[in-house]
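Data card: per-record layout.
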Amino acid sequence: MLDAFGRNIHYLRISVTDLCNYRCRYCMGEDGVAKCAHADVMPFEEIAAIAAAAARLGVDKIRLTGGEPLVRRGIVSLCRMLRQVPGVRELTMTTNGSLLPQFADGLKAAGVDRLNISLDTLDAERFRRITRGGNLEDVLRGIEAAARAGFTQTKLNVVLLDGFNADEIPAFAALTKEKPLSVRFIERMPIGDAAGWEPERYLAADAVLRAVPELEPIGTDGVARLYRVPGYSGTVGLIPPMSRKFCAACDRVRLTADGKLKPCLHSATEIPLRGLTGDALETALRDAIWAKPASHTMDAAHPSDAVRNMFEIGG
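The structure for this 315-residue chain is written out next.
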């Protein structure tokens, strides 16, 4: 499915909830989030119907996000439903990993292909501080549970925060020595209520190359520039939405938990899809993709134009 700029849009990210069991400081306020009314959250059948319409138009990859998707009751059943949608080649999930010890086996059996696990520090006290009370061991056990369940090509998403985890870059890269993980360093984006959070914490992705000079480029994976330390099993990825826009290669749209399609993460544009079926739904999807902008306008001086927080849109 092509947009107005000739990009092939084949990747749909679906937020199943805006709720999360963590309160990460760069993501949300100390009081957490105002719970979305139950009636406003799409039921699984509606999510699956939108996914099926998108697949008929060319979407072949779906990622489930949140909030934290594993706090949504019945999430394994939704995974099973989406795995059965004709045309869906890949089903993945982004999670903070803390609930994987109880869900990893079920997710694998339901047909989830791959996991991205968010982890911003390997220090237990720092982890407790950044998440406002989280337990690092829960996530580490989650990573192990994913491996036991048979998940491979697992990605660890690390948001770069100067003065917080910059000194841990070598330790994160070292995780790829023995394990076939992909550790992906992501530049923090000024979005939503967190747009003004400690701007001095911003750190460009190229800092990773200075911290681990032995890294060698090996290509790309989607929006990530990939590197490897010679002889290591895994890879290191850099995702630089601030310092090096990759909008020209963007292949995705996002569906919020309350049924709005966002052609661009950082645009205020949201197209309501709830209640639409058949030709009307497919037409709305086509129109939304055609409305996808050439690029975002976000930089160090200009925050995201998105009218929601990241946890309300989906990572």
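Known properties of this structure: The longest strand covers residues 90-95. The domain at 11-313 is CATH 3.20.20.70 (TIM Barrel).

See the next section for split statistics.
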